[in-house]
Specification:
The chain is mainly alpha-helical and about 40 residues long. Helix content is about 80%, strand content about 0%.
């Protein structure tokens, strides 16, 4: 672990990537549920 001038930046980048991936997964899950509900009806 080396000292960085901006130690919060890598954490922020990882947080953004995690949030984006999580949002995509949630969106896909909701879309799948909508399609399944429409198919059942």
């Amino acid at each position: 672990m080396r000292k960085d001038k901006h130690p919060i930046l890598p954490f922020f980048v990882e947080f953004v990537k995690f949030s984006t991936g999580f949002a995509v997964i949630v969106a896909i899950a909701l879309f799948t549920l909508q399609v399944a509900a429409a198919t059942v009806q």
